[in-house]
Design brief:
This protein has 367 residues and is of the alpha/beta class. It has helices at residues 160-167, 184-187, 210-218, 257-268, 278-286, 327-336, 338-350; strands at residues 49-53, 61-65, 78-82, 84-86, 90-95, 100-108, 113-119, 129-132, 139-146, 149-155, 195-198, 222-228, 251-255, 273-276, 297-301, 316-320, 361-365. α6 (327-336) packs across α7 (338-350).
Length: 367
């Protein structure tokens, strides 16, 4: 089992975004009826809708079914998926003093250590002890605190990932106003999830079932996999009006050599690289240098993409609809153009598309 240890690669240290000064956080707000926030997945994974946002020389928006997606992917194209697996990262416990606490693991940093968010009436201090409700033989020691995360050590367990799988809950996003149910253990996970480490799903991938993947392969469309462990920061709206002052959360990325080879072969054949989700896009862009060369390896990325960013790795993007004021909305605005995305979102609202993690998808062309 590979844990997401912190690694840095100096090769990839470069300017992470090119800010366009006239855009502010307020420019990425929009009004969304609460009724459009999907609270449950569709009955079948591929049964949702797909909004195609086409290039400027064709009709701007096409309302499709997600099942239509293969028709818009060419034989020479390469689809890049994120194979991270969502941890059952939420669980409850009590402090030695008796107070109840809620824990959300943010990152596993070893077999017995993790960073976590803790909700309690009084925040625990370094040296304090937490006893999990569902396993009172285990002990969680608070080592210290790093900003909003607590550094924890787990004693009396096999390893954190397997232990969470036994006692934890799937951490549904805060805009899903219900507790996680048994169905969510499968549906808030892609069918190709393999590497444990995320606390949020790469939601564009939730639309794919085995039948869809088989159809794509039969058409000669290649699929490959990167890993980016999605953290809780993906749900955090930008708090500052001046985007240059925003501090991006860090996430762990792994790009295998097989992906580098597949991208090179796709380019040589004249095909396009299609990122399945913003996480796949961030992974590829983070590991591509200014000359457009993708490299294999692992790193921590805090890449903040906003309008003005120069894309080097990705040609098309499949993604869900994102939160107002979020870095992901800024990313898709950079990819397809601010005015195009704003119009597409208004079209989606008017046409009553379903939004966010369990919502519908959109297929974007690079501006």
């Amino acid at each position: 089992m590979r844990y997401n240890a912190v690694l840095h690669t100096s090769y990839f240290q470069r300017v992470t975004s090119i800010p366009v000064l006239h855009y502010t956080r307020s420019d990425f707000d929009f009004d969304l009826p609460e009724s459009l926030i999907a609270q449950y997945p569709t009955r079948e994974r591929s049964a949702g809708r797909l909004l195609r946002v086409a290039p400027a020389n064709t009709p701007p928006f096409q309302d499709l079914r997600f099942a239509d997606l293969p028709e818009w992917i060419a034989e020479n194209d390469l689809m890049v998926f994120n194979d991270t697996r969502v941890l059952k990262a939420r669980f409850f416990g009590r402090k030695a003093t008796g107070g109840r606490v809620e824990l959300l693991i943010e990152r596993v940093i070893g077999a017995h250590e993790a960073l976590a968010q803790i909700r309690a009436s009084h925040a625990p201090t370094a040296g304090s002890l937490i006893i999990p409700e569902k396993d009172e033989t285990a002990r969680i020691n608070v080592i210290g605190r790093h900003a909003r995360f607590f550094h924890l050590r787990f004693d009396g367990i096999e390893n954190i990932v397997d232990w969470l799988d036994r006692v934890g809950q799937i951490p549904l996003p805060p805009y899903i106003r219900r507790d996680a149910e048994r169905e969510d253990e499968a549906r808030y996970q892609t069918v190709y999830a393999r590497v444990p480490g995320a606390i949020a799903a790469p939601t564009a991938g939730l639309h794919f079932d085995e039948e869809m993947l088989t159809i794509l392969r039969r058409r000669g469309i290649r699929c490959t996999f990167v890993t980016l462990h999605v953290g809780a920061g993906t749900f955090q709206p930008v708090q500052v009006e001046d985007l240059r002052k925003h501090t991006m959360h860090s996430e762990h990325v792994h790009i295998p050599q097989t992906v580098v080879d597949a991208v090179a072969e796709t380019r040589a054949r004249g095909g396009r690289v299609i990122a399945i989700g913003t996480t796949s896009l961030r992974a590829l862009e983070s590991m591509t240098n200014e000359q457009g060369e993708l490299r294999a390896g692992e790193m921590e990325t805090d890449l903040f993409i906003m309008p003005g960013y120069c894309f080097r790795a990705v040609d098309k993007l499949l993604t869900n609809f994102h939160l107002p004021g979020s870095t992901l909305l800024m990313l898709v605005s950079a990819f397809s153009g601010y005015d195009v995305i704003r119009a597409a979102y208004q079209h989606a609202i008017d046409a009553r598309y379903r939004f966010f993690s369990y919502g519908d998808a959109m297929l974007l062309e690079r501006s």
